[in-house]
Amino acid sequence: MPTLHHHGEIDAEAADWAARVDAGAISPDEADRLDLWLGADRRHRGAFARAQAILHAAGQLNSNDVRAPRRVMNRRALLAGGGVMAASLATGAVYLTRRDPVLRLRTGAGETRRIALDDGSTAVLDSRSRLDVALSSATRHLTLDAGEAWLSATADAVRPLRLDVGDLHARAAAAVELVVRLRDGETRLTIVQGVVEAWTTAAPRDVRRLGSGAELTLADATRSIAVGKVEADALQRRLGWRDGLLILDGETLAEAAREFNHYNDLQIDVRGDSADLRVVGAFRNTDPEAFARTMQDLFGVGVQRLSGRIAITDARGVS
Which range of residues forms the domain containing residue 169? Predict the structure, then answer.
């Protein structure tokens, strides 16, 4: 499994390449080197796509006549901010202190939201998510009622983190980074770094100790529990939403459409054998029309804009 340091090096290289391409300061020889670098590892392609998305978001911010700060951050410094910077550009940040005992955060279709606690902890909410944050002198209590959230909590032995996600519960006193998800018929807890104790409402005494890379999934229909490991590459792809991206690595067109529908009111309807096509690439998760056009160019599928939806069919057309 690649180390976090290795991922940091890849992100730094991607940031450098993206900034140079964006500035037009790249020679033909360097373009060849970039092609070789992108082809050497699929993580390079994902990191480069994320870096370009951040620069694109920054360009949109400037084009909206937002007043620039006196000290202008250069593009490489901007890219170093990674997913948090992209999320802030999209929706702004919310800062929560002990003076605010409860904060109810909600995101709509295609929105992300970032909160920063006064203890240094951070949370980022995905589209269509609901997170309640309650602070007291004794505990930090977060409740995810829907959607998905990335959390980075600082160590606090006096106020341990308590997390409720549907019928799944967790706690941590040491520093921890994790992802929680409550959608599509399942509840999921993924530990990026650190150690978490987790249990379910049905079995409160069956406490499981989960370390870095561990993932616990609770199926809503069967109430069955599965514990496994998630690879670093897969986790980074999943977290593309923090940068406004949907990163696909062989998912079917039907699965990709389901993800796009989570982020947009304009829904994609996939019909026929085209649903089984496998898709690889990074796409803006709030632009289903661009995605549909790309699928048409790549696979020759039929694409038609109907009332409130986009129909993708086999090449012979809409049925």
Answer: 90-235
Residue found under tokens 């929105």: 111
Task: Encode pLDDT of 162-209 as tens digits.
Answer: 999 999 999 998 999 999 999 988 899 999 999 999 999 988 899 999
- 235, 256, 287 - which closes a domain: 235
Same domain for 254 and 153: no
Question: Of the candidates 235, 269, 300, which is a domain's last residue?
Answer: 235
pLDDT more than 70, % of the chain: 78
In a shared domain, residues 217 and 259: no
Backbone torsions φ then ψ of 29, nearest 5 degrees: -65, -40
Lowest mean pLDDT among 88-92, 166-170, 195-199, 298-302: 88-92
- Residues 250-272: what's their mean pLDDT? 96
Q: Residue 174 phi/psi, 5° resolution?
A: -85, 170
Distance CA 222, CA 67 (A): 53
Token reading at 238: 């999943």
One domain, residues 141 and 174: yes
Secondary structure E strands in the chain:
93-96, 102-106, 113-117, 122-125, 130-135, 140-153, 161-165, 168-172, 176-183, 186-193, 196-200, 208-210, 214-219, 225-229, 245-252, 267-270, 278-284, 302-306, 309-313
Question: How many C-beta atoms surround the C-beta of residue 70 within 10 A?
Answer: 5
Assigned token pair, 188: 């999921």
Total domain count, the chain: 3
Q: What's the mean pLDDT when you consider all of the chain? A: 80
